[in-house]
Design a protein that fits this description.
This protein is α/β, with parallel strands linked by helices. It has a domain of 111 residues. It is 48% helix and 10% strand. It has seven helices and four strands, in the order H-E-H-H-E-E-E-H-H-H-H. A four-stranded mixed sheet has the order 1-2-4-3, sandwiched between helices. Helix 3 runs parallel beside helix 4. The radius of gyration is 17 Å and the shape is elongated. It binds zinc ion. The site of zinc ion has 4 residues, from helix 4.
């Protein structure tokens, strides 16, 4: 976490430069090998999970880079530091730290679609959700009636801050990117 803070500070310092595409420097991967050391399991039982996690982690990073570069145009804010963890914790976005954490639970490594880029595996649902929070925080937001209606219908009742009408306005603005209606994207994420 210390190195993440250092990166985060460095990225904030760059924000005055206006344009900074997401690059390899934006990524941190928490090693599955380190997680293994706390499991007490045999390495041969764990090895397949390490390989799958590393493949998932690479896809998460590549997808973030593609979405971010598609979503933000020439005069863009600085992309968040992306951290991919193997853990049961919640994925999250921190605006003050300019940090997205995508948490992959070990149980999800066996999902049939976990490496399927054409589907919506769990990490993509969470990555898009956190990127919508990033969008909501980094772009000017004028809430429309459509967003207010979606918020009334889909806002999670007990899921932390940040799921007000502004979050649903981000959904309204980005749904067409996924060839969805705002309603379909709100239901998905
Ligand atoms: Zn959220």
């Amino acid at each position: 976490m210390v190195s993440a803070d250092v990166f985060s500070l460095a990225l904030c310092a760059l924000s005055a430069l206006c344009t900074e595409k997401v690059s390899a420097q934006n990524y941190v991967t928490v090693s599955a090998t380190n997680v293994y050391q706390n499991t007490g399991r045999k390495w041969q039982d764990w090895r397949k999970n390490v390989a799958t996690f590393e493949a998932v982690s690479a896809i998460v990073k590549e997808t973030y880079r593609k979405l971010w570069n598609d979503w933000y145009l020439a005069c863009a804010p600085v992309g968040a530091l992306l951290q991919v963890d193997l853990s049961d914790e919640c994925s999250r976005y921190s605006h003050s730290r300019n940090l997205i954490v995508i948490a992959i639970a070990e149980a999800n490594l066996d999902d049939h679609d976990i490496l399927d880029l054409s589907a919506w595996p769990i990490w993509k649902v969470e990555l898009v959700h956190e990127m919508l929070h990033e969008w909501q925080a980094k772009t000017p937001c004028i809430v429309t009636r459509d967003a207010e209606a979606l918020c009334t219908k889909y806002a999670p009742p007990a899921c932390g801050d940040g799921h007000g009408p502004e979050f649903f306005q981000a959904i309204v603005e980005k749904a067409s990117y996924f060839s969805m209606t705002p309603e379909q994207l709100a239901a998905k994420i």
